[in-house]
Design a protein that fits this description.
InterPro entries: CHP04255. The chain has about 260 residues and is an alpha+beta fold. It contains six helices and eleven strands. Helices cover about 25% and strands about 30% of the residues. It is globular, with a radius of gyration of 21 Å.
Length: about 260
């Protein structure tokens, strides 16, 4: 997919509510059978909070399994959280993932990810990576941008939602849910977007919003070297272009962009 070029910007009203990077690798049994004490000791000043998730097993299934004296699945992920809980680092036997709800710019996110991955690779030495993914989730809420009077066709481009521009039935649209798989540099993207409903606390009611969910990934053998970071850098550039070509100039301006270096 050839995406148009745009100047790189940072938005004052950042619509991103979640960014996730996940690296998967062949299972490392040491992680399943031994708590990551050494790993935690090296990251705990950045991620002092800890919890362990347990697999969710339907009660009826668990009852049957116990009747036959079979072991219940005990796979669980280790979750390390920043003090404000806006940054989560998850480790399991076959992946490491960084999630944030406080994304500012890619360089800061990559710095935190590289810090954790470097320590993880030194301790656990994954053979190679089988999947590299970087996901951006944006939510456009008109009331938060003083755009209540604007139609979605004035904010979302025809390129991704031509239905909004059809005068015969655009006013009757109750829901849009689109799912695309597109080729991009170094991989592909699952691009899901459409109308959703969120809570408007001021009006004590639900409000229509537009979700843009772009999950960039590649699934192939990737060595533990700079190639991983080159792939993530490429995904970040593609994500910026995809978001920008999905929104109108009106919405772009309402988000209050500031130009930054073109890297």
């Amino acid at each position: 997919m050839k995406l148009p070029e745009f100047d790189r910007v940072i938005y004052e009203y950042n619509p991103l509510f979640e960014v996730v990077c996940q690296l998967t690798f062949p299972p490392i049994l040491k992680i399943s059978h031994q708590e990551p004490v050494e790993f935690q000791d090296e990251i705990r000043f950045q991620y002092p909070l800890f919890e362990r998730t347990q697999p969710q097993i339907p009660p009826e299934i668990a009852k049957v399994v116990q009747q036959f004296n079979l072991p219940l699945p005990n796979n669980s992920a280790y979750i390390f959280k920043s003090e404000d809980q806006k940054w989560n680092l998850a480790v399991d036997k076959d992946f490491i993932a960084l999630t944030t709800s406080a994304y500012e710019r890619y360089e800061y996110f990559r710095e935190k990810l590289e810090f954790a991955v470097t320590i993880f690779e030194r301790i656990y030495k994954p053979s190679f990576y089988t999947r590299v993914g970087l996901r951006y989730r944006d939510l456009i809420v008109r009331s938060e941008l003083q755009l209540e009077s604007k139609k979605w066709s004035e904010l979302i481009t025809r390129r991704i939602a031509s239905e909004l521009y059809d005068s015969d039935f655009s006013g009757s649209i109750q829901s849009i849910n689109k799912s695309l798989v597109l080729k991009v540099d170094n991989g592909q993207v699952n691009f899901n977007h459409g109308l959703v409903y969120v809570e408007n606390t001021k009006a004590n009611d639900e409000e229509e919003a537009y979700l843009l969910d772009a999950d960039f990934y590649t699934e192939r053998k990737i060595a533990r070297d700079e190639n991983v970071w080159n792939i993530l850098d490429s995904f970040n550039k593609s994500a910026r272009k995809l978001f920008r070509c999905s929104i109108s100039e009106t919405l772009h301006d309402a988000l209050r962009p500031t130009n930054v270096d073109p890297s």
